[in-house]
UniProtKB/TrEMBL annotation:
It comes from Clostridium oceanicum. The chain crosses the membrane at residues 31-51, 93-112. InterPro entries: Spore_V_AE, SpoVA. The gene is spoVAE. Coiled coil: none annotated. Keywords: Membrane, Transmembrane, Transmembrane helix. This is Stage V sporulation protein AE.
Amino acid sequence: MDYIRAFLVGGSICVVGQILMDKTKLTPARILVSFVTLGVILGALNIYGYLVDIGGAGATVPLPGFGYSLAKATIKEVNSKGLLGAFTGGAKGSAGGVTAAIIFGYIMSLIFNSKTKD
């Protein structure tokens, strides 16, 4: 059942993104920024946590989940370190995911022959 809920929640987020690309003049970059910002706002208001409880990885893997993890880590740091935590919390909370993306991207570039678009 966890897989079905993750699929439904993550798929719904992706469907919203696809509809925004198809039916509006928003660029994919603006949609990306909007999703991350929405995740931060909903995470700060403690609303996105309910979606994570229902959807698990379906809610944490897409872009709003990245924003949620930034907000969650920043709130934790502010509560423990004060105002300085507002500057360090997001970096600490997202460091693992960003590092993994860089490392795996580098490994894939070594394995496959990457080319620029013409």
